[in-house]
Amino acid sequence: MSKGKIEVIYKEFQSEMKLSMDTLDYSQKLHEDLAEKDFFKYESPYLISAICIFAVSCLRGEPISLKEISRISHIKESSLMECYDRVYDRIESSLKKL
User: Fold this and answer.
1) Are 39 and 58 in contact (CB under 8 A)?
2) Segments making up each domain of the chain, as ranges
3) Global pTM?
């Protein structure tokens, strides 16, 4: 998926969740870093975006619940948690670079 389309996804999340610009920027950078590793090549960009926003918002002290992310993204909470658990170590190492 093109960078422009990914930016549109993040802007949709930002308008719905009232994310700070820093959280939005860090989430997009995390998404790009994870995409470079090709770990998510078969996953929905909405799922990846949702997971990145969840991880960054928690680390920045602006936690957004999975329930809220699920409501906005129309992705089941269980799917979000499953993906987050599966990639937690990769997310953690990528966030250290940011």
Assistant:
1) no
2) 3-97
3) 0.83
> In the CATH scheme, what is the code of domain 3-97?
1.10.472.10
In angstroms, the CA 26 to CA 31 distance is: 9
φ/ψ of residue 45, rounded to 5: -60, -25
Give me the helix-helix angle, 45-59 and 21-36, nearest 10°: 130
CB 98 within 8 A of CB 55: no
How many CB atoms are closer than 10 A to CB 91?
21
Token output for 26:
């860090």
* Phi and psi at residue 18, to the nearest 5°: 60, 45
DSSP codes, 41-89? TTS-HHHHHHHHHHHHHHHTT----HHHHHHHHT--HHHHHHHHHHHHH
pLDDT digits 0-9 by tens, 28-81:
988 888 887 776 767 788 888 999 999 888 888 888 889 999 998 899 999 999
